[in-house]
Each structure stands twice: as C-alpha cells, then as structure tokens.
Amino acid sequence: MTAQSPNDASGLAVRLPAPLVAMLRRRDSNVFFLLFVLVAAIVFFTIQSPYFFSDRNAFNIGRAVSITGIAAAFATLLMISGGLDLSIGAIMNASGLAAAVIMVDPENSIIFAFAVSLGISAFIGFSNGIIVTKIGVNPIIATIGMQFVVRGMTLATRSGSALVRNRTFLEIGQGELAIGTMEIPVPVILMLTTMLLCYLALRFTQFGKYIYAIGDNASACRRAGINVAGMRIALYTLSGLGAGFAGIVLAGLTGAGIPYAAGSELSVISAVILGGVSLSGGVGVIQGTLLGVLLVGVLKNGMTLLNINANWQMVVEGSVLMIAVSLDQLKQRI
Amino acid sequence: MEARPALETKDLSRYFKGVVALNDVSVAISPGEVVGLVGDNGAGKSTLVKILSGDLEPSSGQVLIEGEEVHFRHPRDAKKRQIETIYQDLALCENLDIMENVFLGHESYRNPLLRLLDRRRMYRETSQLLEELAIRVPSTRELVMNLSGGQRQATALARVAKAGARLIILDEPTAALGVNETRNLLDLVLRFKAQGKTIIIISHEMRDVFEVTDRIIVLKRGELIADKLTAATDPDEIVRYIIRGRD
Ligand SMILES: Nc1ncnc2c1ncn2[C@@H]1O[C@H](COP(=O)(O)OP(=O)(O)O)[C@@H](O)[C@H]1O
Ligand SMILES: [Mg+2]
C-alpha cells in the first residue's frame, strides 16, 4: 500500500466523468443542491405542520434570518477572499447599542445614530484588516482578540440595554412595506437589498473578480499588480460595516440595544459555509449564502412548530453544518 | 556611442535568513537583446528574476532601467516600467477562466467608475490574441484548473503578450512542455525578439538557450560565473561553468 494524502483523488471510490467534475468545480456548484434540500425541508414541514406553509410564517422566517443574512452577505465576500471575521457578533452588539443609546435622546437624528454606529463598525473592521494584512496575524486569532476587545469595551460603556422609542428607528426592524398585495417586513427587504448589492459586485465588477482571485492565489494577484493588502483591508472593513448594519436592524427589531448577546458570528459563518463558501476561499456565491441562511431559518422554524426543544435544534444546526463542511472536504478531492 | 542598457544591476544581493541567494551580481542588458540565464537548481536565478519583477526587494545593490535607478516595492512598480514576467509557477488563478487570467490586473471596463467589467470585449480580445499567438485552447471560458500544463503555460504567455511589455522575463518556461509546445514557445520568443523586445529566459535546456539567445549569463550559488556572447561559446563550455564554476 502506498501512503495516501488526504487530498489524493484516488481516495474517491468512483471515477467521476469529466463534465460532472467540471460542474462540481464551479464556484456555484452548491446552489442547486441547496435549493433541492431547502425545497425538501419545506415540503417536509408543510406535511408535518398545518401552520408552516403560509405568508405569515414565511415572513416570520424572513424576519428571523434577516439579521444573520445582512451580516452574512458581507461575510461571504470576505470568506471567498480567504478571510474570516469572528468579531461580527461583538460588532453587532456594539453598533446596535451605540445607535440605541443615541436614539434615547429625542434630540438626536437617526442619520446621526447611523453615522456613529456604522463609523464605529467600519473602524473596527478596518482595524481587523490592518492587523491581519500589515502585521500578518492569523485572521482567527486577530478577530477573536477583537471580539473580546469590542465586547469588553461595549460592556464597560454600558452594562444594561437601552430602550428605543423613536418610531422611525423601530420601523427599521419591525415595519412592513406594502409591495403589491403583500406586506413585506422591512428587515427582509434590507437583507435582500444587501444581498443583491453583494451579488452584483461579485458578478459584474473588478472588485468581485479580485475577491475570487485573491481567495485562490493571493501571490499571483500581487504579481499581477493587484493591491492585495488594500483589497483585504477593504473586505474586513466591509465585514465590520455589514455587522454594524445588522446590529442596527437588530436594535430596531428588539426595540433596544443590548450589550451582551453572544455567538452571532457562528450563525453567520455557518450560513456562509453551508451556502458553499469554502474556508480555504476562492469559491461560493451570494445565492448560496441566501439559501444557507434560509435553510437554517426554515429548519429552526419548522422544528419549533413541531415542538422540538431548543437544545435539539442546536444539535440539528450543528450537524447540518458538519455535513456541509464534510461535503466540501470531499469536493476538494476531485 | 553604445546605447544605454535597457536593464542593469549593480552588486545586487539578496539574503534569506542565513542563505545567500544572490551575491553582488552585476549585469547589463542592451535593448532588444535576448539573454539566457542558466545555472543549477538553487543558483539564484528565480531570486534575480523576482527582484527584477518587483516581487522581492534586494538586500543591497541597485537596479537601473535605461540608466535610471529604480526601487521596486511591488510587482506593480515593475509593470509600470513595462517589465512583464512569467514566473516559474506561472502565477495563475485556478478558479478563474483563461480570459480572466489573461486580463488579471489589466481589465477593460464597461463603466470605469464602477469598474464594471466588459467581459464580452475581453473574451473577444483573448480569442484574437490566442489566434495571433497560434495558441490553441478548448475555450477561453475554460477554468485554469481544468487545463493541461501546456495550456496553462499558454495562458501565462498570452497574459504577457497582452500587457505589451518592453522587457519580458521567462522563468523556466519550457520545463513542463512537450516537444511541440516547446517549439511554439521558442518561436514566440523569436517573434518577441523580432518586435524589438528585450528578453531574459531561464532554461536548463542548452539547445533551446543556444537557439534563441544572444548572450548567456551563468549563476552558481548566487554568484555571477560567466557572461558570454552566445556566438562566442558552446554548450560544453556553459555546462562546465554551471557544474564547476570558474576554473
Ligand atoms: N523565500 C525564500 N526563503 C528562503 N530561502 C529562499 C527563498 N527563495 C529562495 N531561497 C533560497 O535561495 C537560493 C536560490 O533560490 P532560487 O533563486 O529559487 O534558485 P533557482 O531559481 O536558480 O533554482 C536557494 O538556496 C533557495 O533555497
Ligand atoms: Mg528557479
């Protein structure tokens, strides 16, 4: 027996035909598979629960996933480029709290609250980018460190939540917009708009092309004259900005800025990976992230309707992520 | 009076943590000249090429372009001086297609402000370019990860041709090529030469080196061992320099 490396193609039991291999190597190879799984999950819950398949419940799911979805859109760009941001959850809290605290004073305008919150978020993301690219710290360590710093500073500034009464601000999270005969929740519209923008950027712009290129071969990009460090810093900044925006929407949804909700970054990163972005970078599309976010939302909502308790929901969510990562690993062998 | 060298190095050195990769190398290359850079593995050829391409900074010494000293901090700086390089590992993005690699860093836009890519135009120009260079690939939309060694090489070559450089550097371009592909490559080098481009080519294949070069530079353990006109030497002598160094 010869030794086999984990990436040895011969590790696969069957030899796949070339067109199938070419298809699996596409950056959007997950999309159809995910769509199939999502439809299957929807059919399953529709059969199991009379409450599942309705406009109302669809919007519940949409509202529940919109915060994760907004942050996930920007995290997708970062992760396709091979980056990772574990400070997303901390930034969300910091930004939501900052906006809420500002809105507590009725003299302050919403624009001002947005500017301060997004400014802080972008600055934190920018700092992540500088630490990762200019100092060369591993992104996992750098952004976990940032997570602690930001969470600590948030809690030191204010330990309790800040209630918001401003109607317009609350509309961002709780409002609905009539489109045709449907009343679509504002956060769902914000999520879809964010994803659309990221989709257009990835698909049609030089920025999007370089994101994929850097995720595959950063040194080749540098040699092609691309400012790789600048791109990376921009992507960490955008990730912070996206998390900050998600935090504002969350504050609008809950009616308060809360300094301590934890762990959101893992939901975001799970959804992105589930959607087909590989941790090693270079592949994935926004449509995949949208489907990943929706699949997690549908599973959680459906299980709640079936009275499956939160602990088991966590087990299912974790298992789905592990299956997704395992499939990705298998795909790397071809 | 002789023309100013297109490229000159003066006492160029590069150290890596205790390893001397390049030691006080001084060479001058005239415009339009084709120079062969030869030497055993680890002689410092790629290191020299990377410094000239802005991919590495020298530890000491100077690089001059047309008599003017330059300090390349980034490959972008070398590209601005119209130096284009085919690296030993080709430096391609596997997840992009042929066109996207050919135009990497040189994109055409439909909207320059938003940097919206004009993909249709770039596909068209890539097809034309490949035809001109007599390079055959299945489709300009094929991902590089699905290409053979020769097709990858062709993609890297097309990129350099596209960029329209004055100095072209090729680091072991024939190493992964078959007989026909090597023939095509050498013809292409001769065509670049006919267009008046200055060329540095690294190769282990003496026949190739003697066919296309005007001059041969030998490196050994980071030092310049010989700098000979091709017409005034022969393969045996060059091989002797490569193996034994200076007598
Ligand atoms: N990035 C690096 N780090 C450490 N040592 C290096 C590096 N690059 C090259 N070297 C060393 O420098 C010497 C010259 O290498 P190189 O220029 O690649 O030689 P060649 O291309 O002639 O085979 C070798 O001893 C090599 O191990
Ligand atoms: Mg080499």
Describe the fold and architecture:
- The complex is a heterodimer of chains A (334) and B (247).
- With 334 residues, chain A is mainly alpha-helical.
- Chain A has one domain (63-158, 166-331).
- Chain A has 14 helices and four strands.
- In chain A, helix 2 runs parallel beside helix 13 (286-305), helix 4 (88-104) runs parallel beside helix 6 and helix 7 (167-174) crosses helix 11.
- The longest helix of chain A has 27 residues, at 228-254.
- Chain B starts with 6 loop residues before the first strand and ends with a helix.
- With 247 residues, chain B is of the alpha/beta class.
- Chain B is globular and about 60 Å long.
- The chains are: A mainly alpha (334), B alpha/beta (247).
- The A-B interface holds A 22, 25, 27, 204-207, 209, 212-213, 215-217, 219-227, 282-283 and B 53, 55, 74-76, 79, 85, 87, 91-96, 100, 104-105, 107, 109, 114-117, 143, 145-146, 159.
- The complex binds adenosine-5'-diphosphate (ADP) and magnesium ion.
- Magnesium ion binds at residues 45-46, 88, 171 of chain B.
Helical amount among residues of chain B, as a percent range?
Answer: 25-40%
> Could you name the CATH homologous superfamily of the largest domain in chain B?
P-loop containing nucleotide triphosphate hydrolases
> β content of chain B, as a range?
25-35%
Report, as a whole number of angstroms, the end-to-end distance of chain B. 33 Å
Return residue spans of chain A where pLDDT drops below 50 for at least 5 consecutive residues. 1-11
In total, the number of domains of chain B comes to 2
Low-confidence segments of chain B: none
Strand order of the largest sheet of chain B: 6-9-10-3-11-12
The proportion of residues forming helix of chain A, as a percent range, comes to: over 70%
Please give the number of β-strands of chain A: 4
Give Rg of chain B in angstroms. Answer: 18 Å
Ends of chain A: how far apart? 21 Å
Order of helices and strands of chain A: HHHHHHEHEEHHHHEHHH
> What name is given to the CATH topology of the largest domain in chain B?
Rossmann fold
Regarding quaternary structure, how should these chains be classified?
Answer: heterodimer
Task: Report the largest inter-chain contact.
Answer: A-B, 24 and 27 residues
Give average pLDDT of chain A, whole number: 91
Net shape of chain B: globular
Gross geometry of chain A: globular
Taken in chain order, the helices and strands of chain B follow as EEEHEEHEHEEHHEHEHEEH
Radius of gyration of chain A: 21 Å
